[in-house]
Write a structure and sequence with these properties.
Blueprint (H helix, E strand, L loop, with lengths): L9 E10 L2 E11 L4 E5 L6 H8 L7 E6 L2 E2 L4 H7 E4 L11 H11 L6 H10 L15 H13 L5 E5 L7 H16 L3 E6 L2 H4 L4 E6 L2 E6 L1 H6 L4 E6 L3 H9 L7 E3 L4 E5 L3 H13 L6 E5 L3 H10 L5
Parallel strand pairs: 3-8, 3-9, 6-7, 7-8
Antiparallel strand pairs: 1-2, 1-4, 4-5, 9-10, 11-13, 11-14, 12-13
Helix pairs in contact: 3-5
Bound molecules: adenosine-5'-triphosphate and magnesium ion.
Length: about 300
């Protein structure tokens, strides 16, 4: 028998979940070693939340199997739930309870005795100590997220599932939130999170790209970028917006992106097609045109890999 502590945090094969006719998650294969921060990335409706809820044992799969912290996903769902923390996308706090009381409520829920010291630690960790007697409903959005995170950590879970933890949080609080997550990782926890932000995904040890219920690529952020087919160029010209429209008559939105003061072009075929695009711009009077090749971002890679038809 495999000892729970020796197993990966997650080991899932062919996990599938349907809602009516629609497969929200299709054949999900995933292994997450202990101590890793894994990020599930994908657009709205990709199946991220459904995948997380399957992994937490909250939703039953229609097909597939897996082990979470060494426990069988279906047969031992109860044991899994006691060892994980889950911050849902639409988490709820008790608005008419204080910060302290909210944490106490979750401590009771998990049967944690003598939680006072852990609570102090978590309040320090999340910098909520000065607000401990404030009602949750009177906290800012970012503080509510931090409190929700604290409630998921009160029972010292081994594995933490965070569904879009930083959506709607301002950039300063987002930075602070990431520092807290680094602290959580240093305590030895494993984190599986979802995010729609590719700049955030860069901070994960490994990421998985999801679309239409399928995980169509996973690896370190560098590996995903290296898998990008084609090359990326920044193009400058005096009037980027009309130049963008001119290029879009010939190429798709996965090839041409308009930024404030420049265009970003990515072409599978590289230089020869770039030259065609530059000639078109010069020919239609959008010059003088400047260009330079740039390293692909995760966003470039995601868009190009989607365009490849990988997720079919
Ligand atoms: N309880 C449900 N009943 C019916 N359909 C559902 C249910 N939950 C999810 N779906 C559908 O499954 C698909 C995947 O949804 P899911 O919420 O997992 O996506 P997501 O990647 O988390 O999206 P978002 O970024 O918007 O949170 C969607 O088409 C959604 O409408
Ligand atoms: Mg979601």
């Amino acid at each position: 028998m495999i000892l729970a502590a020796d197993s990966p945090a997650l080991e899932i094969r062919a996990l599938t979940r349907r809602f009516g006719e629609r497969e929200a998650v299709s054949g999900l294969d995933l292994v997450v070693p202990r101590g890793e921060m894994f990020g599930l990335v994908g657009p709205d409706g990709a199946g991220k939340s459904t995948a997380i809820r399957l992994l937490c044992g909250i939703l039953k799969p229609d097909a597939g199997e897996g082990r979470v912290l060494g426990f069988d996903l279906v047969r031992d769902a109860g044991r899994i739930k006691s060892r994980i923390g889950y911050l849902s996308q639409n988490f709820t706090l008790y608005g008419d309870l204080t910060v302290d009381e909210n944490i106490e409520f979750f401590a009771d829920l998990h049967g944690v005795r003598g939680f006072a010291e852990r609570r102090n630690e978590l309040l320090e960790f999340t910098r909520l100590t000065p607000f401990r007697r404030r009602l949750a409903q009177a906290l800012s959005g970012g503080m509510k997220k931090k409190l929700a995170l604290a409630t998921t950590l009160i029972h010292r879970p081994d594995l933490l599932f965070l569904d879009e933890p930083s959506t709607g949080v301002d950039p300063v609080s987002r930075g602070e939130f990431w520092n807290i997550l680094s602290g959580v990782l240093n305590e030895g926890m494993t984190i599986v999170m979802t995010t729609p932000y590719l700049d955030e995904a860069e901070r994960c040890g490994r990421i998985g790209l999801m679309h239409n219920g399928r995980l169509f690529m996973s690896g370190t952020p560098d590996e995903v970028k290296a898998a990008m087919p084609g090359r990326v160029y920044e193009v400058t010209c005096p009037a980027p917006a009309p130049a963008y429209r001119a290029l879009r008559r010939r190429w798709s939105s996965s090839n041409v992106v308009l930024y404030g003061d420049h265009l970003r072009l990515s072409f599978r075929e590289g230089e020869p097609v770039l030259r065609e695009a530059l000639a078109l711009l010069e020919g239609e009077g959008y010059g003088p045109v400047g260009h330079r090749e740039v390293a692909p971002s995760l966003e470039d890679a995601f868009v190009a890999l989607l365009g490849e038809g990988n997720p079919s």
